[in-house]
Every structure is written in structure tokens, then in C-alpha cells.
Amino acid sequence: MTDNIEKARKIIKNNNIDNYTIPCKKLYPFQWNWDSAFSALGIYTYDKDRALLELDMLFKGQWKNGMIPQIIFHRDDPGYFPGPDIWDSKTNPKTSCITQPPVVASIVWKMVLLGLRKKEKMEEYFKKLFKYHQWFVNNRDPYKQGLISIYHPWESGRDNSPDWDNTLNNIALKPVFIDRKDDILIDEKMRPTNNDYNKYMQIVYKCKELDWDNLLIYDKGLFNVCDPGVQFIFVRACKDLYKLAIFLKKDEYLNTIENWIDRYSDGCDKLWNSEFNSYTTYDIKENKLCYGVSCASLLYAYADVGSIEQRKYMKEHSNRILRHCNYLFPSWDPSSNKFDKKKYWRGPIWCIINYLLLNGFNNIGDTYLADKIRENTIKLIDRNGFFEYYDPINGKGYGGNNFTWTAAIYLILKEETLNQ
Length: 420
Hints:
By secondary structure, this protein is mostly helical. Helices cover 50% and strands 6% of the residues.
């Protein structure tokens, strides 16, 4: 639908502020890490120069140690909690003190495949991306186990997934300062609970107490988990960074990046739950695998990891989940008693995950499932609008409306469909 292509572009342009894009007005008034990366790729379909400005603004928030933060507070907005004063990053611009799934290297490589040839800009991005990946290796795998740690559920991008339930249950409720706004703007039944937020903020305050020292947090923080989503996305990002290094003739970086690919691909085996026959979250703090198939579990294909037998089991999980849904792909297994079709990351569909999934399934040659997700995602948006997330049973949109990354994914999928 040509009108929806124009509408998608208009949504992104309306969410533009000073050469960066916010996810949606009021609910998310700042620049988010992986939101911005997907937004840049969507913008690239119609305005290549503006897409690069989006990435420039994202890299502007990169810390000296290489971390690209979850949120960059380019300007003040009292309508969001926790804001810059809570984080107290002592950086310019102000930022949060945690990160998000590292999709940006894969986004830059995708732009290269689409024709990006600005060598000076690509050289600049490569150095920043290498430093970001090096930060993950040095700070989130300090004992070289081949597992990337996250220190907060927000770092996974899947804030209130059932993946974190057992870990959060180990954190006792305490009186902490919370001034959340999201449950006022959106029906609270669709958002994380106040108890969830209590524990989210306890994790933040504990990390502040440890002065955001990554090794101390690894050993003494309240939350230390390997999320399959972040692990798989990091493996794929390293593979795409390797391709970018070859393209730019950065031969001196190849051995290092290749070692990262090998180490973290091998590390994925530690996420295999043989009792459940699936990749699952691993609680490093408790030395315990979790139970349950999330959309992140299926990103094994995006990373291109797993034995023939493991892939067979994962395909069975995929097909089983598909039989329970009218729309694809739910964020949590609908056969689970923890599934909630309306509640944030406990069941609804997220179009950015669909994009990663279809790329992954194409990656391993499962074109049937990839095409099904592609067609289903376009249909979902055409029928229901540009929402933050969707009900996998009836397709209804929930959360923020006129959402940037949903509009971006729509543009990307339509562009790819036209070029097939």
C-alpha cells in the first residue's frame, strides 16, 4: 500500500528531533540505542544522508570506554522516568549507564550492502563499532567464558520477559524511589508491574553504589544473566563487523574479530537447555538455565549457530508456536502459562524482532518461515497501524502509536519486497 509507505515516512519525520528520532512522542522522548539503529535503516530507504545523521547522533553518546548507552538524553524531558538525574552518567551528552542489544554493526553492514560507499564515514563508524564490541568482550565477559552478560533486564530490550522472572524473584521488594510515567500514558495492564519497577530500580541503585564498575557488578550486582537475544545478536554483529573490516581492508583487526566470533559462537552451546531442547536464558549469578522459549531463543538462526540436532528441535518449537497464533511472531511461547498476549514482552509481537527472525531464517535456508514472517508483518501493520507491539491472536496494536521502529521496519520490508 503506497499510502502506508508515505504514512511510515511521515511518522518517522514527525518523530525527528535535531537529527535523531525518538520512538514515539510522550512515552519515549529520547534517543534509544537499538531503536535508533533500526530507525536509521528505515530512513536509509528514502534519505541516505539523514540516515547517517541518525547514526552520528547515536555515536555522539558513546562513552570513552566504548559503550554505546541504552538512552541518550540530548535534551531534558521531565515526562520520563528514570531520567538523566537518576543515572547521573557524568557524560556529555547525558546518558543512561547501561547498553542495549548491539545491532548497530549489522545495520551499518546492511547499509554497505545497499550501496553505502562514503569511505571516510565508514572508517569512522568502524573504529567506533570495534571499540563498542571490545567493550562487551572486556566488560561483560571478564572471565572469558564466552557468554555476554547483561546487568539489567532493560539491556536485553525485552524488559519484562518471563526470562527474568526467576532472577527478579530473588530480589526482595524494598522501599525505593519510583516516579514512573508509562503506566499513566498506556493501560497499566500492558506494562511492567510496580513490583517489576521496584526491582528494576533496585538494580540501578545497586549498580550506582558499585560506581558502575563492570567487574564489581559482575561479581556483586543483583542481576547477571546471559540473554540468548543479546548473545546471538552479538555473534551476528561480530560476523558483520568482520565483513566490514574486509570491505575496508582493515586486515589488522581480522584475527581479533575472528577470535570473538569463535569464542561467542562456542559460548552459545552453554545456553542450550537439553531438558527443554531449546536455547534459553542462563542466570550466571545462580548458575542456572531458565525454562521457556522466547522470541530471543529463535535468534539462533540470526547468529547461524547450533548443531543439526539443535536446529531440528528449534524448528519444532517454531512450528509448534506458529500453530497457536494467527500472527507472527509472539515474544513468548503461547503454550506457556506465563504467556500474556497484551503485556509488553510476555507475548505480543514486536516487528523489529520479526525482522531479525526472518533474516535469521533466511540465513539458514528456511525461506518458508522467513517469507511467512515477512508477509505476516506487512499484513499486520497494513491492517492495524503502526503500533509499538501487537496481539498475536487478533492482531490488535498496543503500546505507543505512530511508533518509529515499526514504521522503519515496514519501509525496510516493503523495499526488500520490491527488490526481490
